[in-house]
Amino acid sequence: MKQNNGVEGREFWDGATKFDLAVIGGGSGAFAAAIKGSEMGAKVAIIEEGVIGGTCLNRGCVPTKHLIRAAEVYHLAQSNPFAGFSLKRSKLDFAKLIEKKDALLDWARNAKYWDILRYHKNISFISRRAKLTAPGRIDAGGTEIQAQKIIIATGSSAFIPPIEGLDKVPYLTSTEALNLKELPGSMMVLGANAVGLELAQMFSRFGVKTAIHEIMGRVAPLEEPEISDALGKYIKEDGIEVCTCSKVVKARKEGTQIVISSEMPGGKIREFMAEALLVATGRRPNTRNMGLEGLGVAMDARGYIKTDEMMKTSVAGVFAAGDCVGPYQFVYTAAYQGAVAAQNALEDCCERKINYEQVPYAIFTDPEVASVGLKEEQARKRGLAVRTSILDFHWVPRAEAMLNERGLIKIVAEEKSLKLLGVHIVAPQAGELIHEAAMALKFGATAADLIDALHVYPTLSEALKICAQGFFKDATKLSCCAE
Which residue range forms the structural domain that includes residue 182? Predict the structure, then answer.
């Protein structure tokens, strides 16, 4: 196998050109597909032109969670709520922090990707740009690769909105923002969904004067209104300026500042300025210039590949998985899709089907946001009669003991049976709490089942039980651990 010590251009490939399965892409969806194929005895090729590991490892989940945790620790030094002692905050060496982050990513690439290739001897990694030329044929940087089945798992990239003048200012996407060596004095963030919120709070906690601009009427606009409103309140309490209903129409450079013009409610145009501009307005699939149109692979207007529930595309023998497909852009759904695609491709029977009914997700702000299942409006649009229970974390004993009561939980249930339909949380460690809810939904649990399950006292997980009690009684009038 050809190897070198670089990141891009590194290969595990003996020059073979015929494979049972070729996977285009090098992220989680691609590797999940390749590993599944390898385990099924197939000869597999991964073809990836960029850095191995995809968005999650290199410019998404891993680096952001590392830096978000660092920002949290740094922030605690000046926001300690406990009496009896104080914490001293030292000067921040941001370049050193980024150096540590990069070392972590290097380790993860080796442990989670290159070492996997060493273990799976029947997987070749070809570091080339791939283009489909005919059924079962791929041009990999001038070398023709033949494969009985193909899986497209090329991921996504930051979407840059058509704002006048934006192409003439030095804006950042999440990729560049996570590689800054020096912190700007101020920053404007366009977009208040997961990426924008996480990075805005992170930079704010590192001392950057930060403002968020969101075109919708609230931050995290896809969440339950109660969750969004609570999170918006907490974000503002942290000193972040939040401008909702802000439609940015123009950008320009003025000295050391970037100036944006935004259309506000009523049509009034306001100008805002900062040293840096971060664009976090969503992502678009990496499906251009791959030969998909010529092969007849159906895509929607935004370029997402259309698949059925078996991950088959409109072209026989071609499957797709991950961010380039949607409807979710999470590392774990990409891996799930990749494994399903590979199994169906190699078994030629397509019996394994994707199920999106209980997909949990989280936004890693502080407090975190997490959700699984239907939101109240979604349930009503399906014609379901529902009831809801909402609990403020002031009534969760562990939150009180931690002196961190910033939180809210909302449960959506069927009106008569109280079968759980959705659970939505903004709270410390919400990303951990949501898994109990996901399991409850998966197995058709009711609010009574949550109450009947013993919960360790005092834990944040008790919030699920206490909120479920709200369907039957005033949960704010209960003693600790009472049913």
Answer: 166-281
Spatial contact of 132 and 295, defined as CB atoms under 8 Å apart: yes
Same domain, 40 and 139: yes
Give me the number of domains the chain comprises.
Answer: 3
Q: pLDDT, tens digit, for every residue of 336-394?
A: 999 999 999 999 877 899 999 899 999 999 999 999 999 999 999 999 999 999 999 99
We report the CATH number of the domain holding residue 258 as: 3.50.50.60
Q: How many residues does the chain have?
A: 483
Do 300 and 253 fall into the same domain? no
Nearest C-alpha neighbor of 44 from the set 16, 7, 65, 71: 16
Judge whether 30 and 153 are in contact, CB under 8 Å.
yes
Helix (H) or strand (E) holding 195: helix 194-205
Strand partners, 244: 214
Same domain, 30 and 144: yes
Q: For residue 56, what are the CA distances in angstroms to 199, 323, 449? A: 15, 11, 35
Indicate the DSSP class of residue 110: I
Q: Of 375, 421, 378, 426, which is closest to residue 399 (Cα–Cα)?
A: 426
pTM comes to 0.94
Q: Which tokens hold the place of 248?
A: 């940015």
